[in-house]
From TrEMBL:
Lineage: Bacteria, Pseudomonadati, Pseudomonadota, Gammaproteobacteria, Alteromonadales
Residue runs in coiled coils: none
Xref: NCBIfam families: YbgI_SA1388 (TIGR00486)
Keyword field contains Protein transport: no
Family designation: Belongs to the GTP cyclohydrolase I type 2/NIF3 family.
Residues making up the signal peptide according to the UniProt record: none
Descriptive protein name: Nif3-like dinuclear metal center hexameric protein
PANTHER family: GTP CYCLOHYDROLASE 1 TYPE 2 HOMOLOG, NGG1 INTERACTING FACTOR 3
This protein's UniProt keywords: Metal-binding
Length: 250
């Protein structure tokens, strides 16, 4: 398919105009016009770009792309090497940040709920852009059981900041670096909150508000959306798709 057709489809499918974001959503680096092979991955790091080159990608689609609002605008050093590699191989880079977190079917939050296997899932309407989700557990579990389930499903042990509650029957989550939503989770009255990372202050929020917090990994919680997006595009447009998981302990 044509690069411009892919870009236009994703703009509509991910409802990009609905989101206020810190990075441009869509085409960030322009490569060749014809797209047959796509590679997806979480972050446009050098290792992912190198794999995309090896796999003969025409386009690389990521959750964490380039040109964040707070970063220097210059193209030097690490950023120069990454962009140079893409341009040298005529590979387009597409980045989708919040629109990929919030998408109701293939988004990171939707997919994380499926991967962990939550029931009665819904979007928390008070928080804009579909960024906070919640579920009621059909059978309440102990914090240890809850932890074991996340560990098993994500293949990675979370950091657990324990509260006093002995049972978990409701949970909220937001993938990535959204630990500060723990205070919103408390206001919602849920027993547990899941995000990717933890800050020093997160510990006190968990203890003082009696909400179990699980930092399940920024990378680990955001692997599923971009992979699902790649599969969706492969099915819809007959593209060849490779999801590449460059492991990251954070
Ligand atoms: Zn993220």
């Amino acid at each position: 398919m044509q690069r411009q057709a892919l870009e236009a489809y994703l703009k509509d499918y991910l409802q990009i105009d609905r989101f206020k974001d810190y990075a441009p959503n869509g085409l960030q680096v322009e490569g060749r016009d014809e797209i047959r092979t796509i590679v997806t991955g979480v972050t446009a790091c050098q290792a992912l770009i190198d794999r995309a080159i090896e796999l003969g990608a025409d386009a690389l689609l990521v959750h964490h792309g380039f040109f964040w609002k707070n970063e220097p605008a210059t193209i030097v050093g690490m950023k120069q090497r990454r962009i140079k590699a893409l341009l040298a191989h005529d590979i387009s880079l597409f980045g989708y940040h919040l629109p990929l977190d919030g998408h109701s079917v293939i988004g990171n939050n939707a997919r994380l709920g499926e991967v962990i296997g939550f029931d009665n899932v819904r979007i928390v309407e008070q928080v804009p852009q579909n960024l906070l989700w919640r579920a009621e557990l059909t059978v309440p579990v102990t914090p240890a059981q809850f932890m074991a389930r996340i560990t098993e499903r994500l293949g990675r042990e979370p950091i657990h900041l324990a509260a006093e509650k002995t049972q978990i029957s409701s949970v909220a989550w937001c993938t990535g670096g959204a630990q500060d939503y723990i205070d919103t989770a408390y206001e919602l009255g849920v027993d547990a909150f899941i995000s990717g990372e933890a800050s020093e202050r997160t510990f006190h929020s968990a203890v003082e508000q009696n909400v179990h917090y699980f930092a399940a990994g920024h990378h680990a919680t955001e692997r599923y959306g971009i992979e699902a997006l790649g599969k969706h595009l492969a099915d819809k447009f007959g593209l060849l798709h490779h999801f590449v998981d460059i492991d990251n302990p954070i």
